[in-house]
Amino acid sequence: MTETTLRPLALVTGASSGIGLDLARQFVGHGFDVIVNAEDDDIHDVATELRASGATVQAVRADLRRPTGVEELFASVRSADRPLAAAALNAGVGQGGAFLDQSLDDIREIIDLNVTSTVHLAQLVLNDMVSRNSGRVLITSSIASTMPGSYQAIYNASKAFLQSFAYAIQDELKDTEVTITSLMPGPTDTDFFERADMENTRVGQGSKDDPADVARMGFEALMAGKSRVVAASAKTKIQEAVDKVLPDKVKAAAHGQMAKPLSDD
Hints:
Elements: E1 9-12, H1 18-29, E2 33-38, H2 42-51, E3 57-61, H3 67-79, E4 84-89, H4 104-132, E5 135-140, H5 153-172, E6 178-185, H6 192-195, H7 202-205, H8 211-224, E7 228-231, H9 234-243, H10 248-259
Parallel strand pairs: 1-2, 1-4, 2-3, 4-5, 5-6, 6-7
Helix pairs in contact: 1-8, 3-4, 4-5
């Protein structure tokens, strides 16, 4: 058996940019081989970068908004013929603006990717891990899960779902050696706000955390078997603490001030 086959294997979704890319970098930097996924061709460039570390890297371009995309990705995991030691279920998308101004297609895209695909892939991955009684799963939630998301209603609701889902599965698997960790980033310097059409908002124009810091904290929490980690800046940690005590009506109004397009003021 070669040294390469002895490396643990990890899966990272949404790995072509942002937090997902930096999570993949964390895994290979700590001795993992990786399967990286995204819906765009950039995932192949990511794989080339990561292979320079000496890791075995497989890029799978698949659209997880479709059940067939999830199945295609998991088939690639199976074809590796190696146990999956860790999975970072990170793929997600957002959309700003008033709920009634959003198209149903955009709304469905958020739910299909953030919620449905995460649940689908989690069930496939966790069934395999529990059968071996070994494995770690990181679910990228958000600080947004702690507050009603005026002018970002579907995204925040999707992250609240993931937070609740992660806590529930943690409890169900507490008697196993499989761990679930929720990663809760605040505003992060990725292409999220451009893709969500939120650059013309206070949150879009405000200070943001470095995705490398968020990924590092997420990876460390995953390896430590922690239930959750709020990442990465003190500002984000304070926001999460404040949200525990503020009424939902107050949080919704405050979120609206940050996420409402400035041209509408």
